[in-house]
Every structure is written in structure tokens, then in C-alpha cells.
Amino acid sequence: MREATRFTVVEMSGSRHEMGVQYGRQCKKLIRSVAKAFDSMLVPEEYREEAREVAKGALSHVKAEAPELIEEVEGIAEGCGLPFEDVFRLSCSQELNSWQGCMRKRPINTIVDECTTIAAERNGSSLVAWNMDWWIRWQPYMVLLHGQPDDGARFLSFAIAGSVGRPGLSENISVGANFLPYRAAPEFAAGGPDWAGAGIPYSFTARMLLAQESTAEALKMLKRTKRMACLNYTLGDLGGEICCVETMPEHIAVLRPKDGYITHSNSYHAPEFGGMTMAERAERDPRCHRAWEVLGRRPKPLSRADIYAAQRSHFPGQSTGVCVHTQGERPSITLLSFVGDVQAQTIWAAYGSPCEHQFLRYDL
Questions:
Q1: Are 77 and 23 in contact (CB under 8 A)?
Q2: What is the pLDDT of residues 258-277, one digit of tens each?
Q3: Structurally, how many domains does the chain consist of?
Q4: Structural domain that includes position 269
Q5: Backbone φ and ψ of 335, nearest 5°
Q6: What share of the chain is helix, strand, coil (3-state, %, to 5)?
Q7: Helices assigned H by DSSP within the chain
């Protein structure tokens, strides 16, 4: 029997500052706890002072493109009683991980088993799914933000407590994401010392995408902005347009579905980025290939149950797979799984490993 564990839902409404204050007050203990451990969890001691400056560099980019999210951060800081800088840095975890990987010239620091995404066309609309895979130490800090801003669309966004959010669902679009090996530009190799500098961090990018009215508008947003980490964003809107968008700091490549669905994990697939062919993915990007394989055997159009099966799947004869369970110095699991149904305005989410937990309903 799978466990039925619900996320802590953070209710936020009103102005952006008011929303932030509500968030900070509701999650004060969690935010202060993760802020205390944040630097030691992500950055070796010899890089910590410099890492703080790296995170600060993102501030001007976010102010220029999404000043409303800065207002939220200011509110969170007020609500939990921490300095603005310490709270802002909580939305820069992927960026600091990538940056210190470049500094140390260690590819392992720019990519681990971090997330699988799926999108499927369904009844003229979209289903978008996300497995968030990362170090098990993050599990106690995961919350679900339910935002109802005065000046924008309602949203559900998963977050590490204190950050502005990650993928989720809004009135018009659903977003998934998965980390990619850091490359400053297409001509640079992954895992090297090349760093493109400041840009918009992933957490802010995810929230900006949730504010878009369609997949087409989301693509325009990604084209005009500079980012600070390399990720694939998987998108699906109310009208049924789905795609994956591989992003580097100033470059994007769009991948379209085949047979009404698409899967992605932690490697480049786009030809313009020297991406893997489908044949190569079976060996070198096995979680993406496993999800694609499971869904390929299901009748079309795909249902939520079909996508759950892919999200819960393990490699044959192994205890890990799309649903991640890895050991080592920093054990990783699938911290959460969701399927966002844009038409139904509902997200179905499993808290923890989906092979062990039920998908429970959260309405927008």
C-alpha cells in the first residue's frame, strides 16, 4: 500500500510583498533551518565568500525582468526575519552548484541524477510531469506554494522553503524542468572552467514561465532573457502545445513531440547543441529513454495513469530508474513527482518516491 502523504501548502494572496510576508511567516522555522545549512550543503568552504558574490550578481537581472519576484523575496525576508541577501540566495541553489563545478573543473558538480520531465497532448490540452530528483537532505524542506497574486495568474509551484519556487502549474501553462551539464555556450564543453556569468536563476525562471499565457509566449520569454544555469524546460499549455526547451545562458533549442508526447532528462538532445540521438539515449540517458519506452507501449492519447507508470518505473532488475534511489556520499531520491493537468487546473503530486507514495490532488 502506497503512503498518502500531503505537502505543506503555503497559501499566498494579495500584493507580491504581502504574498512574500505570508510565505515567510508560515514557513519561518523551515526557512531559517535551510538558510543555516544552505552554504555547507552546496559550496565547499574555500568558495563560500566568492559564492555569495556570485549569487548577488543575479539580482540586477531579476530586477530588470521580474521586479515583482524581488518584492516577494523582500516579503519572505520580512516574514521570516532574515536578511534579504540570505533569502535571495535560497533561489540560487542550481546556479551555485554549476558555478562551483566550473571553478573546480569537475563535471560531477555540474550534473547529477537531477529530474526527469514528460509532456503529453491530452483532449486538446496538455499534461506536464516532473520527477524532482536530488539529494535526500532536501526532502524535509519541500513545500507547495499556492499563489493568488493581485496582478497575475494563480499558480501552484513546488519550492525548497524560502525560494520563490520551481516547476508547477498555472491557469494557462504547466512547467517541468531538469538540470543539464553546464555549458557557457554551444561551443564550450560541459564540465569545464568556462562560466558565462550572472543571469536569471532557475527558481525565478520557473516562476516567470508560470506567469506566461501560452507555450509560445514562454518561448519568447526564454529567447529574450539571459539565464545563469543550463536546464531543459518542459512546457504544455491550455491549447495543447507541448515542447522541451534546452537552455544555455544565452541560447535555446526547442524539441517538439513525436506521437503526442516527449520525455527528457539530464542530457542535451538538440542537434544544434550536439545532442544525443535516440539510440544513444538508451545507454547514456537511461532515465529519459526508460520513460519514453514505458509510454511508447501505452495506447494514445496518454492518461495520467500512464504517466504515473513511467514516473514510478525502475530499470529492469534494479532498485533505481526514472524513480531515483542512489547511494554514495550524497544519496539521492525522487523528492517529489507531479502531473499537471492544465485543462483541469489541477496538479496530482506524490511526496517522496512515487513508487512508495500516492499521487494526491491539489486544485489551482
A1: no
A2: 999 999 999 999 999 999 99
A3: 1
A4: 107-363
A5: -70, -35
A6: 35, 25, 35
A7: 16-26, 28-42, 48-57, 59-65, 67-80, 84-89, 93-104, 202-210, 215-224, 278-284, 286-296, 304-312
Cell of 322: 526514472
Q: How far is CA 29 from the centre of its chain?
A: 23
Question: pLDDT tens across 279-328, in order?
Answer: 899 988 999 999 999 999 999 999 999 999 999 999 999 999 999 999 88
Distance CA 76, CA 165 (A): 12
Q: For residue 128, how many other CB atoms are within 10 A of its CB?
A: 27
Question: Is residue 74 situated within a structural domain?
Answer: no
Longest Cα pair distance anywhere in the chain, in angstroms? 53
Strand partners, 14: 149
Name which of 43, 146, 133, 44 is nearest 97 in CA terms. 43
CA 315 to chain centre: 23
CATH number of the domain encompassing residue 281: 3.60.60.10
